[in-house]
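Field: COMPLEX_INPUT
Field: COMPONENT_COUNT = two
Field: RESIDUE_TOTAL = 301
Field: MODE = joint
Values follow.
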Amino acid sequence: MIGAQKMKYRYKVRAYAVAILGIVCFGSLIAAVLGCEPDPECTAETTQCSDNAAEICDADGLWLEIADCDETESADGLPWTCCFVPDAGVHACLPADDCEVIE
Amino acid sequence: MTIDPKTVINFWNYTADKYDAKIKQKTGSSSMRIIGRILVALSIMSYRRFMKGFVTTIKRTIYVPFRVGTPSPRFGLWDQVVIAAHESTHVKQYKDGGWKFLWNYLRSSTKRANYECKAYHTSFELIFWRYGVLPGATERAKTLKQYGCTKKEIKIVGKYLRSCSETIRRGGVTTRAGKDSIAWLEKNAPKLRIGKGI
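Field: COMPLEX_OUTPUT
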């Protein structure tokens, strides 16, 4: 690449970098000012069952769905239920019979 | 069981059709070259690492650092199948969330970790379908360090993957991309399944 073109390309890259950083910073500022971030609703890392779905509390303190047990499918077509799995220390979707054994 | 390169190409074509995605070579893309330079300017990663070591999905376009159907030391043929399913999850996330998805992914490492959880969930479903065993949840979560995620976020991803591993190990498939991919593989490449998986 010719020197002048190379410089032009570098400026272009820098301009893109500054523009992206600017958009992210400006957007974050607006979000902070407007209070877009929801309040924490749980303790990070905890898991739970909610409406037959396994959920985990994310680092922002918001529930994140791991799996909707009603949407879980298997070859045998049997129903899936959310319950606590002691060995793994988490809530998870398991075949309904497995959950009954654990409980 | 070796994989026929045609199977890999057909699988990529299937996922591209199903999720309305486009596949492009990373090295031939000027936008990828610019992003690579930006990552260098921000000291996030080396240009070579970004261009050769990562598959990148932006909106509906999947930029790949390999030729689909041609194995490389870093991206074997089965890896390419798993990557197609993983990236189609991100395409679906974009289709469901639009610009909000892109914004969240770029802005928040927590949201990025959450989106990657879902894509890893799909990868785990495919791996278990083929081999009947799962990768270590904690080890897999640690790869998110490259995505700028914190130790706390990585720990949460590990726990997320432990939970979905419990489901997968018992034969459960939950993600949309996992269901679609496994149905295609069952129909078109059932011999790839060498374990007692799903």
